[in-house]
Amino acid sequence: MRLEITCQDRLGITQDVLDILVNYEIDLRGIEIDESGKIFLNFPNIEFADFQHLMPEIRRIEGITDVKTTPFMPLEREQNQLRALLQTLPDPVFSLDTRGRILLVNEAVTASLEMPVKTLLGNDIAEFVRGFNVTRWLDSKQPKPQTQKVKFIEQDFLADILPVVIPDAEGSTILAGALLMLKSEFRLGQQLTVFHQATSDSFSSVLANSAAMKKVVREAMRMSELDDALMIFGETGTGKALLARACHEASRRASGRFVTLQCSALPDPLFEQSLLGTADEPGLLEQAQGGTLFIDDVAEMSPLAQAVLQRVLQQGGYTESSSGETQPLDVRIVCATQHDLGQKVQEGAFREDVYYRLNALSLVVPPLRDRKSDIVPLAERCLKQHSVKLGRRPPKLSKSCVDYLMAYPWPGNVRQLENALYRALSLLQGNELSKEHIQLPSAATSVSIVPEDFEGSLEDEVKRFEKDLLKRLYPYYPSTRQLAKKLGLSHTAIANKLREYDINKKTVKL
Questions:
Q1: To the nearest whole number, what is the mean pLDDT of the chain?
Q2: What is the distance, to the nearest Å, from the Cα of residue 297 to the centroid of all Cα atoms in its chain?
Q3: What does the H/E/C string look like for 169-200?
Q4: DSSP string covering 51-95
Q5: Which helix (H) or strand (E) holds 472?
Q6: Strands ordered across the beta sheet of 155-167
Q7: pLDDT score recorded for residue 198
Q8: Whole-model pTM?
Q9: Which stretch of DSSP H or E encloses residue 268?
């Protein structure tokens, strides 16, 4: 039982309360007096009859204004609040005594180590966290707060190591232990991303109504928090560059520059100059320091250009042409391609070492024909943007126009949609856009996959189409059962076809 007693500041009032407890032969477990002067008592539960007499007696003491039960003593409440706070923290936290032994851990520690709390308590922190001698730090004259890089479960973490001190009677402090808080690189990346994030959503420019595109944006948002190289796959016109810029703007590098290297437009003699610079002009790597280098059409990079890039990536730095000094590379590299880069590696057209360095993380942007629910919102947004440029009100889309846009296969994807709408809007005189205003190549021509003069048998062409279809669907249905259900075939049939065409998680990037 715990009592909270509100009273005046009178000498001897606490002793008067204790005398009553002695009279009732109550074993006092604890007594606390808070800053406001309230007295808190902790004693075993007593019989109701005794309790009925005890409360009025305490209230009759001179200077006491109120007596009531309370669920917690102040120290108990504080301890419970601190424990609850500790347990809800997502990062591993250790509380240590003055010898570096574990007194308390949170759930993030037990989950990471897959060990119960009882097994951890009393162990030396050095058994679990390496890279900083906590015991030596505790033994120093006046331990100061430290931030150190350490190893925890064989991974790099940033540790905040804080001394825990309590005041003594003379007003100085006594070391009571330490608090160790760990943060992983991923968690730090998340926090830095939020800190540097623009007030508007960095991915607002990437329209995603369809389930396929929403999945891409979710993955892109997580990958933007990391600093590894990122490869974006997708057909021409799907918006790979737009997604790359959104990843940059959502990253901790958002304050740095977003620099584009267009591989298809650079002959070999100019590639190294563009990348590393000249005596008169800084290269793209120098311009992108602290930011992002976006390498577009990376599959078009020549063998010589690949060798130059590989040298930079392997050395982790580059030599400035202007000064001749070697600079560490502080650039995130994001690449885009419409080609199957893995296939090009197998064909010897792209260096394997460069491929694996650039393909640490990857995203696959689906074609517009696979994200039907994005077509009309994209069209409406495009019309609004172009109408502002042309100084007119955005027209409405007629039903015939919507049906036509939804049925068209869009081989040129979002770029083709934007260009078609811009042309139609430029010539439009009314306030409604209908099917007749949209000029596009016929759908039959657009979806033709076989040239008139192709060589080979029907079986060869069917297999080629089948392989291409399976490779396109596999990233979205990586389970053979899912893919079989999608195509209306048996699990065994799909498994055999994937094996025949060498389509798996190693050859097709998910």
A1: 86
A2: 26
A3: CCCCEEEEEEEEEEEEHHHHHHHHHHHHCCCC
A4: HHHHHHHHHTSTTEEEEEE-S--HHHHHHHHHHHHHHH-SS-EEE
A5: helix 458-473
A6: 102-105, 93-96, 173-184, 155-167, 146-152, 129-130
A7: 44
A8: 0.56
A9: helix 268-276
Write the pLDDT tens digit of every residue in 171-226. 678 898 999 999 887 777 666 656 555 434 678 889 999 999 999 999 999 999 89
* DSSP class of 129: E
Q: Is residue 168 exposed (0-12), middle (13-18) or buried (19+ Cβ within 10 Å)?
A: exposed
Cα-flanking dihedrals φ and ψ of residue 45, to 5°? Answer: -60, 140
C-alpha span between 33 and 483 (Å, rounded): 69
Q: Pairing relation of β-strands 292-296 and 258-262?
A: parallel
CA end-to-end distance (rounded Å), the chain? 61
Contact between 429 and 391 (Cβ < 8 Å): no
Name the strands in the sheet holding 39-42, side by side, starting at the edge strand that comes first in the sequence: 30-33, 39-42, 2-7, 64-69
pLDDT digits over 23-44, tens only? 888 888 889 888 788 999 998 8
Quick one: tokens of 183? 């943060």
> Are residues 209 and 406 in contact, defined by beta-carbon separation less than 8 angstroms?
no
| CA Rg value for the chain | 34
